[in-house]
């Protein structure tokens, strides 16, 4: 299973920004990475891949949600400007909204060569404790077994969180 890290300044902000977010709000989210190299999971994330979203803050982590990736784009870009254009076009968020994203703004001027973007389809809120011994790589992604995470098969099949007109 793939895990994606979301860092917050405090536990309260982690709760407000991911852990306690409702399924309808989560279903409106797009996530992306802008990389100089083809980092994991550039070649592996596809439509239908299950991803556990992890909220992190100083002193703690929680496995917040199990989601499915949809509308995945994994493209080569010729610099930051083209990466922003790819994101704006693919996500239909528009250039201004993509540019207002703090992560995107931080990457301005960097040598962006690869874009990975995907829309979130909520499956189930998990809110599980973070297992001891697991560590994320520098790019905010990790692959781990469900058993290591305390996620059981019944957490990942069949039952979907109802969202406004989507699954």
Automatic annotation (TrEMBL):
Identification of the protein by name: Uncharacterized protein
Organism name: Isoptericola variabilis (strain 225)
């Amino acid at each position: 299973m793939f895990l994606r890290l979301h860092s917050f300044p405090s536990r309260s902000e982690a709760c407000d920004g991911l852990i306690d977010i409702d399924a309808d709000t989560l279903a409106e989210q797009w996530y992306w990475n802008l990389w100089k190299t083809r980092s994991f999971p550039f070649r592996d994330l596809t439509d239908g891949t299950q991803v556990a979203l992890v909220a992190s803050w100083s002193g703690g982590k929680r496995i917040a949600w199990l989601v499915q990736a949809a509308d995945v784009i994994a493209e080569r870009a010729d610099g930051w400007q083209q990466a922003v254009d790819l994101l704006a076009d693919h996500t239909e968020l528009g250039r201004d909204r993509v540019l207002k994203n703090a992560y995107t703004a931080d990457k301005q001027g960097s040598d962006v060569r690869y874009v990975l973007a995907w829309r979130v389809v909520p499956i189930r809120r998990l809110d599980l404790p973070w297992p001891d011994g697991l560590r994320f790589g520098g790019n905010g992604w990790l692959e781990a077994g469900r058993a290591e995470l305390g996620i059981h098969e019944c957490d990942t099949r069949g039952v979907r969180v109802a969202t406004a007109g989507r699954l």
